[in-house]
Amino acid sequence: CMSVLFGIALAACGGGGGGGGGGDSAAPSIYWAKAYGISDSSGESPIHFRSAVPSPDRGILATGETAGQALILKTREDGSAIWGMRRSGTGFNQVHRLVANSAGNYFAAGVTEEAHAVMFLAMISDSGTVKWEKTYDTGTAESLEGLSPTKDGGCVLASTGSGVGHILKISATGSTDWQYVYSSSEKVKFGSIQVTKDGGYIVAGSKVRPATATTAAGWHAWILRLTASGTILWQTTYVAKSESHLRSVCEAASGDFVAAGEILETISDALVLRLTPEGKVVLHCPNDACPAQL
After folding, report:
1. Rounded distance, CA 160 to CA 42, Å?
2. What is the DSSP-derived secondary structure letter of residue 23?
3. What percentage of the chain has pLDDT greater than the value 90?
4. C-alpha pair distances (Å), 97 with each of 28, 111, 123, 145, 213
5. What does pTM read for this prediction?
6. How far is Cα 56 from Cα 105, in angstroms, rounded to an integer?
7. 3-class DSSP state for residue 94?
């Protein structure tokens, strides 16, 4: 049975705003709000959701955990549950990222709790069938930081461990097409990976840089551009006065890239960068100083 333990709200941005003055848009509208919970012979167990993605039928697929088990929940457009799946065992307990692929299936990814953590990936059908599940061991303690679907029905994974970055291109059957390892004297952390319109990849994160006359040593925002086969096209480091990290990145309609993260001063301030397709930073705005044209 279901009990009221956890809520999900689905919202859409309202109209308004616009214009050169950069006015605020209208407040989002809540389409629905639902509560989900698990109740069995051991009592009620709270659900902790980690990730959710829209499904082709306008529903939602969400993943999380409850009572030491992984939970994957599929809803209709109105938020009512269609099916739920609880799984134990290698990998599923640590799933925290979901994406849909071009064939209508979903990738669920995370890390396992082994002697050293390894990446875990499963393909799940829209009806809740686990088609396959696999682990990928790169030899270092892993933190999964990025998952993005690729045009061939597969996906790409980005993780970091011990200051080394790993990017794995995975096929629709779970095999590794190629692996890219970023290892240098400067430690790195990946924050996000996305597929670009030309089939390549854009990666946002941070890397350790030595001190200079105007900046302190530490982590600084970093963006990496790769070809479809994993070859580096360019990389750019944005060196601020204090530590900075990028958490997400996307490709704009113009072909530029927009990345977002934070600058760590006495408190964390927002950081947004806009880069040309060649990797030149053309706009940056800490705090709330972003102009409307960003």
Report:
1. 38
2. B
3. 36
4. 25, 10, 12, 9, 40
5. 0.81
6. 10
7. helix
Query: Is residue 3's pLDDT more than 90?
Result: no
| Dist. CA 205–CA 260, nearest whole Å | 10
- pLDDT at position 104: 86
Tell me whether residue 20 is exposed, middle or buried, using C-beta atoms within 10 angstroms of its C-beta: 0 to 12, 13 to 18, 19 or more: exposed
Predicted confidence at residue 152, as pLDDT, reads 92
Distance in angstroms (rounded) separating the CA atoms of residues 146 and 32: 29
Beta bridge mates, 121: 109, 134
Measured CA to CA, the distance from residue 166 to residue 179 in angstroms comes to 7
Is 56's pLDDT higher than 70?
yes
| Confidence at residue 43, expressed as pLDDT on a 0 to 100 scale | 66
DSSP summary character for residue 71: E
- Listed in sequence order, the residues at least 6 apart from 40 whose beta carbon sits closer than 8 Å to its beta carbon are none
The answer to whether 152 touches 169, Cβ cutoff 8 Å, is no
Asked whether the beta carbons of 12 and 27 are under 8 A apart, the reply is no
pLDDT tops 70 at residue 51: yes
The upper half-sphere exposure of residue 151, i.e. CA atoms within 13 Å in the direction of its Cβ, equals 8
Tens of pLDDT along 215-257?
667 899 999 999 999 999 999 998 877 888 999 999 999 999 9
Q: Quick one: tokens of 97? A: 């990222």
Q: Contact at 8 Å (CB) between 108 and 124?
A: yes
Half-sphere exposure of 264 (CA within 13 A, CB side): 11
How far is residue 133's CA from residue 89's CA, in Å, rounded to a whole number? 11
Angle at 118 between CA 99 and CA 226, to 5 degrees: 55
